[in-house]
Write a structure and sequence with these properties.
Helix content: 25-40%
Number of helices: 9
CATH class of the largest domain: Alpha Beta
Radius of gyration: 32 Å
Number of strands: 18
Largest sheet: 6 strands, mixed
CATH architecture of the largest domain: 3-Layer(aba) Sandwich
Length: about 400
């Protein structure tokens, strides 16, 4: 491929030949031919010197929260037996942008390093690379290049806010003012079910009394008490949100609550699309699902609730939405038997009376505008419910 300089030289050669035809001057003919030959020789040089490089990319870290910075280091090694000249390296990060480096000359076997930083926003899953290596001939008339190196992924989680404490919900003792739940993340000896022994099970988990009764080995399957469980459900219906800002606020709310629960000892699950929930012991998978969350024009939340009801483990239910409606209330009602307490987090531009029906059903509500803080609204709800319980 010709560079701008190459096109200019080729144009000048063509002009020289045209003038020779018009005026018959031999000098014009020689000049035109030499310029055209120069471009041809440069093209042959570039083709014979096609880059053969080894490219390694180091992405640190490869998963960040929105607004954080990631560093990309690209290492290029010339695997040809001759130097590469006029080397230009381009590395793109999805829609976040492209980094361009004018490397210049790389000798045989030489390794060069390039580094750039990315301010990661908005949230999403981005494809990094493959990089593009372009070389030019010594005269800069032609260039040749193509993709090099692997593709990598950069996952930008939603921005999160630090939440403190927990609103008082049914099943919690109002006399216990603890900043975090007092339970084991993996359950305790008092909470278990029984199942048949399978090869590889820890024999220390054998429940001997039941094994004697059934004449087969039975294993204690530890379970977490319901107070230690939680489900965060993000409403992905497009009609629930007034605009994109409200949806993004809801996504950040879901991410903030899920992280707060996971770091506070809850055995939490997240639904943010897909056919299954994601547990807190797969935190990165859950956050990636939130990073890729998009609103859907057609989504039946009642079907989602029915599927969760068949496999859900109960506990506390956190509904994160925009303007709550009758369908979302139906989700609460469908899951109320297993999820004994519900907290609604609503991201909306305008005040709405639709939350009253949730409050009448015993649902705690936390409402913010897109420019407001989840942490402040959460704290106000926490203080209000604890103070109300103490006064009562």
């Amino acid at each position: 491929m010709l560079t701008e300089r190459g096109w200019a030289v080729l144009g000048a050669g063509g002009a020289g030949l045209a003038l020779w035809i018009g005026f018959g001057e031999v000098e014009l003919l020689v000049t035109g031919v030499l310029l055209a030959l120069g471009v041809g020789v440069a093209a042959l040089w570039s083709r014979s010197g096609a880059p053969r490089v080894e490219l390694i990319r180091r992405l640190t870290p490869d998963a960040v929260h929105e607004g954080d910075q990631a560093t990309v280091e690209v290492v290029v090694t010339n695997r040809r037996r001759r130097s590469l000249t006029g080397v230009v390296l381009r590395d793109s990060v999805g829609s976040l942008g492209t980094a361009t480096f004018e490397v210049g000359r790389i000798r045989p076997g030489e390794t060069v390093h390039a580094r750039y930083h990315i301010i990661c926003r908005p949230r999403g899953v981005y494809e990094v690379g493959p990089a593009e290596i372009v070389v030019t001939d010594p005269m800069g008339l032609t260039e040749l290049g193509g993709p090099a190196g692997p593709k990598d992924r950069l996952v930008v989680y939603p921005a999160v806010e630090e939440l403190t404490g927990f609103p008082l919900v049914r099943g919690r003792d109002p006399a216990v003012h603890a900043s975090r739940p007092e339970f084991s993340h993996r359950g305790g000896e008092d909470f278990f079910t029984l199942r048949e022994y399978q090869t590889g099970d820890d024999l220390r988990r054998v429940h001997w009394p039941s094994s004697a009764k059934r004449d087969e080995l039975m294993i204690r399957q530890l379970e977490t008490p319901w107070q230690a469980r939680a489900l965060v459900l993000l409403d992905l219906r497009a009609r629930a949100y007034e605009n994109d800002a409200c949806f993004e606020k809801a996504v950040r709310g879901a991410a903030s609550v899920f992280r707060h629960l996971a770091t506070s000892g809850f055995d939490a699950e997240l639904w943010a699309g897909g056919t299954t929930t994601v547990a807190s012991d797969h935190y990165a998978v859950a956050m990636e699902r939130l990073a890729a969350a998009r609103p859907f024009s057609r989504l039946d939340l009642r079907t989602v609730a029915a599927n969760i009801g068949r496999t859900g483990r109960g506990g506390a239910l956190f509904l994160v939405s925009g303007i709550p409606d009758h369908d979302l209330l139906g989700v609460h009602q469908a899951l109320a038997r297993d999820y004994r307490s519900t907290i609604l987090l609503s991201a909306t531009e305008t005040e709405t009376s639709s939350t009253l029906s949730f409050q009448r059903a015993g649902v705690l509500t936390v409402t913010v505008r897109p420019t407001d803080s989840w942490s402040e609204a959460w704290m106000m709800t926490t203080n209000r419910t604890w103070h109300g319980a103490s006064a009562g």
